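Protocol step 6 of 9: fold each sequence in the batch and record its structure tokens directly after the sequence line. For illustration, a two-sequence batch is reproduced in full.

Sequence one:
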Amino acid sequence: MILVLVVLFPPHNVAKERALVVVTLSCLTLTIFAACYLSALSPCSEASHTLSQTFAVLSAVVVVVAFAPQLYETWRTRGAGSLSSLYYLIQSIGTALVVVLQLVALRDSILVWGPNSISMAMQGGIFSMLCYYRRCAGRCSGGTTGTDPLLVVQDSAQAATSVNDGRWERVD
């Protein structure tokens, strides 16, 4: 439903993005139908296990496809832009906890915890780069003392300042 809502409003209501939503929803529907059909036809069969292993491998590929552009763009631009460090920190910790649960408590195979491990590593990489580039940006530009604005909220007075000789000065 969210995908449909996204393409109803500008700037995403173009033919290319609407077609991408149709393809995505069609693939999702076919995947769910195939899994339900095979499970109802022959539960716990070799074909069901093969399909579940295929889904596990595909989920790892999807994780890489989902996070790789952000990881690359953050590295390429050497900046964090408007990404939330707090989001990536919480997401990385949550994914790490899921991996520990799957490994230790549930003793699942690599096909279960592998995609989550890849996701955790990529999210942790993005979080690490966010912190590094935000810390480095202050030192490299000669501006701030290199504080990491993980949870810093700027007020309007701070937003109206500029860096001059390594000191914060108000711009009037």
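Sequence two, same batch, same settings:
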Amino acid sequence: MACYDPDTEEYQSVCRVMSGFSDAFCIEKWLNLLILKIVISRQSVRILG
């Protein structure tokens, strides 16, 4: 989920807003998906952190 910031003309991520998922569920899914992480991003995507 993301929201658009017209000042920077970028989408800002919004995490777990009203998802209803527990922290344990989110951590488990994050660990399962970690192997699919893209190390080098496209030029059009800015990654912080």
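Proceed to step 7 once all outputs are recorded. Observation for sequence two: The beta strands are 2-5, 10-13.
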